[in-house]
Amino acid sequence: MEAEVALHAKLSPFPLPELVWREYWDGQTINDRRIHLDLDLANAAIELNKQVREKNLARSSELTGLNNPNSPLQLKDWVNRRGITMATMGKQEIQDTLTATTDFIVEEVLALRLELSKSSVRKYEAMTTSASPVDSRARGLMQFHGAARTGRWAGRLIQVQNLLCTYLPDLDAARALVKQRNQTALEMLYDSVPYVLSQRIRTAFTPKDGCEFIVAEYSAIEARVIAWLAGEDWRLDLFGRGEDIYCQSASQMFGVPMEKHGVNAHLRQKGKIAELACGYGGSIGALENMRALRMGLNAEELPGLVSAWREANLSIVKFWWTIDQAAQQTLTSGRPATTHGITFTREAGILFCALPSGRRLAYPGATITTSKFGRDVITYQGQNTAKRWDWIETYGPKLVENIVQATARDLLAYAIQTVEAKGWPVVMHVHDELIIEVPKSHCDGCAGRVGFV
């Protein structure tokens, strides 16, 4: 308690605006309201996974003769003894080896390894420990301001921020088989039972009796926000027309007309990769991290792809560096600097960045230093990727990433307030999506109006 009192006194010169407190209380209301879980499905998935895992371990042990074929070290040594060199038992290296090998035993063993390494049931296990035994509803799933850099909510307990997308057809049939614990039928109908279980995770979140979920999502929210902030007009126009950003990005990059399933359709993939990798200053390394080379591109194409994207998005590129300049100007002069509706100020050694909503991002101890590349960068104190307090470097494109994600978060917070004010209870949300639980009799009317929030 003494530490909390001291912390409150230390931060008293920087009071939170009323809008942030309102967002906090809305978040607590949603956490306390909770979302209903199908615990029968969760328990069935856990049981099935245990049975399949035991079967796969036994088969792998039979093929390899290993006491513990689930040990990466033991399995790597076994594979190497069969004349196939593998440095690790990582997923990508296993997939590469599966593509190249002609050893059918190694192929089966590595396929089993991939199955055994799936974490399909972890979220189901979290559901069974998080849900109330009284009403099967989970509470406290979202931590307010869990992402310190942007103020976004962070997933807790079940971690709903990274739920897998559902691609498996026949959702209801697969779900029924899982709830029946019908391992035989699942193995006959599907290639991988763990994959089926992972594809059913979203269906474990269920509305209460007499209600349905309405799911409302901001489409391509970060691409829209950065276009709006930077003033990239051709992007704003295409969003207004409801067109495909990946198609139009490729068209703009390569100077040719393009249709998703028509003329120059092969360029859409390049447009998509460039969009995902280059928006926040990403270059060749970012493209490689997006697995561009595994999506049909070759290494020689990557520099040209980066250049083409930047030439097609000159306003965004300019935005990166005007933000960088404004932040450094404030640190150098101590005076406020504003650009593109973003204002930087310096108070008590903290660099503040005021967003269009009025909310501020904070960079404690910010100063200008020289990077290993010999250029001026901003360095501030914060948690590094290892969750340790450290000095962190940032620069224009990274600041823009923070600004865009924080602004997208503010739009979601506004949507939550608006929806709640209309009496539509939000039971869960993720970065760009709201899940509202309403009586079935109200669904049609609500669904039509939520789209205008």
UniProtKB/TrEMBL annotation:
Annotated GO MF terms: DNA binding; DNA-directed DNA polymerase activity
Family annotation (InterPro entries): DNA-dir_DNA_pol_A_palm_dom, DNA/RNA_pol_sf, DNA_polymerase_A
A matching Pfam family: DNA_pol_A
Catalysed conversion reaction: DNA(n) + a 2'-deoxyribonucleoside 5'-triphosphate = DNA(n+1) + diphosphate
Superkingdom: Bacteria
Top-level enzyme category: transferase
Keywords tagged on the record: DNA replication, Nucleotidyltransferase, Transferase
Record domain DNA-directed DNA polymerase family A palm: where: 198-442
Listed EC numbers: 2.7.7.7
GO terms of biological process kind: DNA-templated DNA replication; double-strand break repair
Protein name: DNA-directed DNA polymerase
UniProt organism field: Corynebacterium choanae
